[in-house]
Write a structure and sequence with these properties.
The complex is a heterodimer of chains A (578) and B (95). By secondary structure, chain A is α+β, with helices and mostly antiparallel strands. Chain A is built from 23 helices and 17 strands. Chain B has a single domain, classed as Beta-grasp domain (Ubiquitin-like (UB roll)), CATH 3.10.20.30. Classes of the chains: A alpha+beta (578), B alpha+beta (95).
Chain lengths: 578, 95
Amino acid sequence: MSKRILRVNMTKLEAKFEDLPADFVALGGRALTSTIVAKEVDPLCHPLGANNKLVFAPGLVTGTKAPTSGRLSVGGKSPLTGGIKEANVGTNFAQKLGRMRIAAVVVEGMHKGDDYYLLKIKNDGTEFMKANKWSNKGLYDTYKELYKEFGNKVGICGVGIAAEISGAASGVCFNDPEGLPSRYAGRGGLGAVMASKGLKFIIVDETGAPGVEILNEEAFNMGVKKLWNALTTHDVTKPGGALNSFGTSVLVNIINEAGGLPQRNFSSGQDDRSEKVSGEVKADEIKKRGGVRPHFCSPGCVIQCSEVWTKPGGKDPMGVLEYESLWALGPNCGIYNLDDIGELNRACNDLGLDTIEAGGMMGVAMEGGLAEFGDGKKALKLIEEIKNKTPTGRILANGTAFTAQALGVTRVPVVKGQSLPAYDPRAIKGIGVTYATTPQGADHTAGYAIATEIMGVGGTADPKDPKKAELSRNLQVATAAIDATGYCLFIAFAILDIPEGLEGVVDTLNGVLGTSLTVDDVPGYGMQIINTEREFNKAAGFTDKHDRLPEFFLKEKLAPHNEVFNVTDEELDKVWGA
Amino acid sequence: MTILVKIFGDLRKKIEGSKISGSLPLNLHIESDEIETIADVLNKYAIEKEETSHLFVNGSYSGFNKKLKDGDRVGLFPKNMSLLYKWYFTRNEDG
């Protein structure tokens, strides 16, 4: 069996397998979602109309035994940004698709009428079922019921109430290993795209799946070994390393100490109350409560940065409480209480909200007077407005920019309509260049911490130095390539220090594809993805004037450094040579 | 000279007689005329350079030779909290 695309027509309620076109064979993950969206979606279509498509694609090595490779890309035209979107998630749902040799699921058209559907994908066929009984319900209860009905070995993708009301802050939810609805392809409102088509859930049952085809076993096995060695010996990624011990929230104290942890809707870069919600405190608390840490988001991960946060006494497991979520719903709202933050994160997961967008939204809602900064209980009540589908809830469900406009708030931390993550660009300029120039809208993962050596940048960089175009470009290009492989971005920490690790990644790709790629091919591959995305955005109406940060970052000084974002427009335009 | 030294994570165990409160950092107010650089602070507590990762002085990512002045805030992170900075930023050294 060769690799295939599952084309799901929601207008006709039909799903058909097609062979993967020959020129798509080397594309996976973000490379495949962005290529299909660019090829098949009119950039001027309404993102919630029949002409948008939602594309799911596991990475090239996803589903194999390659370590830390359980990633899935979800793509479409974003109702939040109006541009192309790739949202990325780690889940065994991705690995199941990979082993069924499904390179992509393309959901198109739109069901007319009010019914919601569930699509069950098996190795040899598909089935549509009505899903109305799970509409208007929280995803925690719903996922429990779905596992009861379909067995505990399936993978589940779903959208929540926030998506049902077309909220541009809604994400696409996936199961974690415990079956909790806590892993999200969160960003860009793709949940609303799925719901707009009448599709509420996708269930994947991999029984009888042939497994990922590996054309050169020898190269593949050699690559797995090299990468595994790199990941298990590197200080950041090895067992007992920073990510494994504390999760991504290890960054709370580090970024606060660096003066770049945005507080109270980006009005300060440091507040020592953040120490009460650090990764160390959280890891300690999880241990005391009987939660789980470390933990993997998908089987086969060596790094295991994930966890299961619970209420006091180990009750009501919530899932992972990531750095970005914890910050967005915590310090960004002046909330320095882990239980309040945990319950806000649970509410987001339950309703199908992107936690970063929800936290950004809550920050502007607080500035706009809907709650006091620091009032976690009131914040939770505001999230409940979304559950109750009230007019206020419908505003909040559309994210940071929409809420700010409704409330007359002018400090609006968004780029291309998408809210900024947990690093203030006035303190850390390089990430600000990425926020401004990525085709995705403000996104830390689009150019995070990737092998500077690969690209010959050579770890330059004073965080306050405004010359960052080359650094950001190289990071963005390398990231796009990693997002196509199905490896988690965090392997970058190891492969940038250990050259054999990077070789291992390329070896595994050669193993799966039967190619003879080298490390030098990586940048060209990544650049192709970015070019495809930028062309889509250009046709959708974006110009270099959209590659900018909001005005307040250029005017308001951020404590404690008392710096503004002083990267010139000329420097920003140098990123893509516009 | 008075400086605030914030000691994070496992490095707190190196400070004899200190009260560690849960997982919060240890805040030490040091008055000394013998401290000139971060390396001097590490020496004072017998912390080896290899045991550290991120070092900050007033929010700036710093190296061992970074000179200190009255009123500075110093942040010291242990090796097992090493994450982002090593790749993103060069250390600010005065030496």
